[in-house]
From TrEMBL:
GO terms for molecular function: transmembrane signaling receptor activity. Residues 1-75, 107-198 form the Ig-like domain. It comes from the Eukaryota. Its main location: membrane. Residues 551-599 have a biased composition (Basic and acidic residues). It is found in: Membrane. GO terms for cellular component: plasma membrane. It comes from Cyprinus carpio (Common carp). This is Ig-like domain-containing protein. Coiled coil: none annotated. Residues 546-599 are annotated as: Disordered. Keywords: Membrane, Transmembrane. The lineage of its organism: Eukaryota, Metazoa, Chordata, Craniata, Vertebrata. InterPro entries: CD300_family_receptors (IPR050671), Ig-like_dom (IPR007110), Ig-like_dom_sf (IPR036179), Ig-like_fold (IPR013783), Ig_sub (IPR003599), Ig_V-set (IPR013106). The keyword Hydrolase does not apply.
């Protein structure tokens, strides 16, 4: 909508005519406005009047003009002086501009342009401000311009002039008017003529409040995690993140991660914070960001000056293997030049690195940093610890916390070796985590394709969202394991010599291998899968050979050789010196009772006598 506003000035004649000014229409001088006051704005519906006194003129401002405002008006004082003013409203004039809304932040400098018709290029340009009911002149193209002034007006004398407002404060919020001075003949006004000021543009300036301003340093190819805190009363309000006052991301959904290219946002209404995760940082990400919340017709925000550094001394990534139940240490780089807080986080399925939960933090410890390196230790490792971790440096401010990530660690799990004997059976107890649906893909952060998933699913109607699937497979790497197929799984519990039994109460599933063979020796993987994500635990199976008959004879011979002594030889000799006995002697068998002498060995002897 185009609106036109007009200001009319009338110069007074003598010093005794300084009081009782009026402006009215028709012979009865109604409607209109009058005042007995100097240097104070008075109001009457759409009319505003200001008597400067010292400048020997007064100003009338009329709002919301319409065609019904055409006609003759009279301005004067309550004594002898008056002057008629013929006033015409032209809605089709191209000098009538539009209303626009501009937003700016405290401390900023903004510039906007005001377009005018070519015939007004030599006219004086003005900037007014509507402050409440008052209308204040701020600057004019006829005034001297200084770069240090708050309001700077620059006229190209072509088709527009520009207005610059420096170092914006909260008090600068309001409506501004660009205008051109003219008389009734569209000529530049003379000193004695009535001056019309045609306002060609209305600018509504909204000054947005800033909570604080902080600088955050992050690193090329890494990620940064920022948490913005807001006052308690705005917990439920919609949040936003903005880059360089132009690229604005509004968070329309709450309490879930929302992706926008490599920027992920999470409006946590329970904590009253906005979480922002920016991954794969490049030099182009260095900018000024504003993390804000919408409040009525205004915004509340924190300014973030993100600096991107090289971080050449940070290792790209590393792999670590941990034995379940034991501890593992991860080596982390640390910016030495700042006193920061050591940090470790774990990727979720969206590859967003989230802080370790408070219930788990007691198992994580940090060593003292030396030469920019510290160690993060995880004790009592369990299946839920498998995944991708990032080390980082945390910085805390009053209303903002940032974590700049430095090193990536891929943590896989293994069990103590399982030893079996050929021909026997062995049971392997595989631990698993019932909360796996919240875990990330383990190996290199990769989830396998649907084709790979179908290999391990024998039941096509299985609902993967209801429970996790357990499986046991063989291969040097997990992807080979999936490719070659599971030996047994939750959907195929018996497969030849392999069987699987789940024990939810114990948090394990047991795999039994019967009739062990030499070719069964090797690397296996206990795995659980949910929604396309896998957690693997490595198992090494070692087999020993079953002893043969020749092995037994050889072992017996060696044992006998070791037992040969002079005493045993004498004993053997006595045992061999027995009388010869014929078959007839058995008829008259007599038992000889055992005799015993102190200090001598005891013997039991049977004699057969004729």
């Amino acid at each position: 909508m185009i609106s036109l506003k007009e200001s009319i000035s009338a110069e007074t004649e003598t010093d005794d005519q300084l009081k009782g000014k009026y402006f009215c229409r028709n012979r009865d001088c109604k409607p209109g406005i009058s005042t007995e006051l100097l240097r104070r704005w008075v109001y009457n519906e759409r009319y505003t009047l200001y008597d400067d006194g010292n400048s020997r003129f007064f100003t009338v401002f009329i709002r919301n003009l319409s065609r019904e405002d055409d006609g003759r008006y009279t301005c004067g004082n309550n004594q002898k002086w008056s002057r008629d003013v013929d006033f015409r409203v032209n809605k089709n004039s191209s000098s009538c501009g539009t209303s626009v809304i501009r937003s700016a932040y405290i401390g900023q400098t903004i510039t906007f342009s005001c377009e005018y018709e070519h015939g007004f290029k030599t006219h004086t340009k003005v900037l007014y401000r509507v402050h409440g009911d008052a209308v204040l002149v701020l600057n004019s193209s006829q005034s001297s311009q200084s770069s240090e002034e708050k309001f700077i007006l620059s006229d190209s004398q072509k088709d527009h002039f520009t207005v610059t407002i420096r170092n914006i404060s909260a008090a600068d919020d309001g409506v501004y008017l660009c205008g051109v001075e003219r008389d009734r003949a569209d000529k530049p006004p003379s000193k004695k003529s009535n001056t019309h000021i045609t306002f060609i543009k209305e600018i509504e300036l909204k000054v947005l409040r800033q909570i604080t301003s902080v600088q955050v340093e992050a690193y090329i190819s890494k990620s940064v995690f920022i948490t913005c805190e807001f006052p308690e009363e705005f917990k439920e309000n919609k949040k936003f993140i903005e880059k360089d006052s132009s690229q604005k991301i509004s968070v329309d959904e709450q309490n879930q991660w929302i992706p926008h290219d490599k920027v992920h946002v999470f409006d946590d209404t329970s904590a009253g914070v906005l979480k922002v995760f920016i991954s794969d940082l490049t030099a182009a990400d260095e900018a000024t960001y504003r993390c804000g919340v919408n409040i009525a017709d205004d915004h509340l925000f924190t300014e973030i000056k993100l600096k991107i550094s090289q971080g050449d001394n940070f290792r790209e990534s590393s792999e670590s293997v941990a034995v379940i139940g034991e501890s593992v240490k991860l080596s982390c780089n640390y910016p030495e030049k700042q006193q920061l807080i050591k940090h470790i986080c774990k990727e979720n399925e969206e590859k967003i690195c989230q802080s370790i939960s408070s219930s788990e933090k007691q198992r994580f410890e940090f060593s003292d940093s030396t030469a920019g390196v510290y160690t993060a230790s995880i004790s009592n490792v369990s299946p839920r610890d498998a995944g991708v971790y990032w080390c980082g440096a945390e910085t805390r401010h009053e209303h903002l916390t940032s974590v700049s990530l430095t090193n990536k660690h891929q943590l896989t799990l293994t069990m103590p070796p399982v030893i079996g004997r050929e021909g026997d059976s062995v049971e392997i107890k595989c631990p698993y985590d019932e909360k796996h649906t919240e875990e990330a893909c383990l190996r290199s952060g990769k989830c396998f394709t649907k084709d790979a998933q179908n290999i391990i699913r024998s039941d096509e109607d299985h609902d993967k969202n209801k429970q996790t699937q357990k499986l046991f497979c063989r291969g040097d790497q997990p992807n080979i394991c999936i490719r070659d197929g599971a030996r047994v799984s939750s959907n195929n519990r018996i497969n030849g010599r392999f069987s699987l039994t789940e024990e939810p109460s114990a948090g394990v599933f047991t795999v039994k291998i019967s009739d062990l063979r030499a070719e069964d020796s090797g690397k296996y993987w206990c795995a659980e899968e949910s929604s396309g994500s896998f957690i693997f635990t490595e198992v090494q199976l070692h087999l020993t050979r079953e002893m043969t008959t020749s092995d037994t004879k050889r072992e017996t011979s060696q044992e006998k050789a070791e037992m040969t002594t002079p005493d045993t030889k004498r004993e053997t000799s006595q045992e061999t010196e027995k009388p010869e006995v014929t078959s007839s002697d058995t008829k008259n068998e007599t038992k000889v009772q055992e005799t015993e002498k102190p200090g001598e060995p005891r013997y039991a002897v049977k004699l057969f006598c004729v």
